[in-house]
Design goal:
Layout: H1 2-20, H2 28-45, H3 61-86, H4 88-97, H5 100-108, H6 119-136, H7 152-175, H8 182-206, H9 214-240, H10 245-267, H11 274-290, H12 292-298
Helix pairs in contact: 1-9, 1-10, 2-8, 2-9, 3-4, 3-7, 3-8, 4-6, 4-7, 5-7, 5-10, 6-10, 6-11, 8-9, 10-11
Length: about 300
């Protein structure tokens, strides 16, 4: 459970970074592009003693991990376009509710729950999806510029977030057979994101859409370290719970929402609607139902 808590805490630190960027006129795109090299260096610092980083394409997982890293950037770009065209509300909902994809994949394809799921667990999963929707919903006062096929953008965000999380679960189950392989495999995924991020940033700079600034590079440090650690501890959590995405992802998503909502209320004076409050209360019930066996074990 400690790994799960740490993953949630570092994920919330990421959101805090994004929350304060506008105040300091930080380019979110540049900070994200630069953050992946920081992630890579953080991973190297955590490399177990006696190990070193290498790309060995005689094995079948490195290419898979590199492509997954590229998927991180593609998902981010699509999320940004969807936010601009269809609004932050619908894009945020698509992102958060995408947890149903790794959950269903874990239950019915991998058939890897790490435990016997009963009707209370399944009820908790269903309530988790509803809770995520309610707790992240905001009245849409934005001007939507989407037209034509732009309505497909949130659907693409939903699918890509779901697929990348599912792929992480699969990669962890198949290739991270022990905790000492966590950092090396994760570093290859990050390397894919480094390459894709550098290419994306170069294209934006050449097109005149982005102008490089030192403050964006500095901002990437406070983003990159928690980014890697949130991902690192999420993978350790999956390993600790038998790679049960059906158990880990709902609690992880809801945990991030609960903690970030508390931080936003305490430090940024953000107000919650009645629906948001109902969603947060329902989220607590969902967590209790999903993990009731663990809670019973404590007492």
């Amino acid at each position: 459970m400690l790994y799960l808590i740490l993953s949630i805490v570092f994920s919330v630190l990421l959101l805090i970074n994004f929350r304060i960027y506008p105040k300091y006129q930080i380019s979110t795109f540049q900070a994200i592009a630069f953050n992946y090299p920081v992630c890579f260096l953080t991973g190297l610092a955590l490399m177990p003693e006696g190990q070193h980083f290498e790309l060995n394409f005689t094995e079948d997982w490195p290419l898979y991990a590199l492509l997954l890293g590229v998927g991180f950037i593609i998902t981010f770009i699509l999320s940004g376009v969807s936010t601009q065209k269809m609004g932050i509300t619908v894009t945020s909902l698509a992102n958060n509710i995408s947890l149903v994809i790794p959950v269903l994949f874990s239950l019915f394809v991998l058939k890897n729950t790490g435990r016997a799921f009963d009707w209370l667990n399944y009820l908790g999963l269903a309530l988790a999806v509803v809770a995520v929707g309610l707790s992240t919903y905001k009245p849409n006062k934005e001007k939507i510029s989407g037209k034509g096929l732009d309505f497909l953008l949130p659907i693409a965000v939903f699918l890509l977030y779901g697929v990348t999380n599912t792929a992480i679960n699969y990669l962890n189950m198949q290739y991270i057979t022990s905790t000492d392989r966590t950092v090396p495999v994760t570093l290859v995924m990050v390397l894919g994101a480094v390459i894709a991020g550098a290419v994306s940033l170069l294209i934006q700079v050449v097109r005149g859409k982005e102008k490089l600034a030192g403050k964006n590079l500095l901002a990437s440090i406070t983003l990159g370290v928690p980014n890697f650690l949130s991902f690192y501890f999420l993978i350790l959590t999956l390993s600790a719970y038998g790679n049960s995405g059906a158990f880990v992802y709902p609690i992880y998503n809801i945990g991030v929402i609960l903690v970030s909502a508390t931080v936003a209320w305490l430090f940024f004076k953000e107000k919650l609607t009645d629906l948001n409050k109902a969603g947060l209360m329902l989220a607590i019930v969902a967590i209790a139902l999903i993990s009731w066996q663990d809670i019973r074990g404590i007492f």
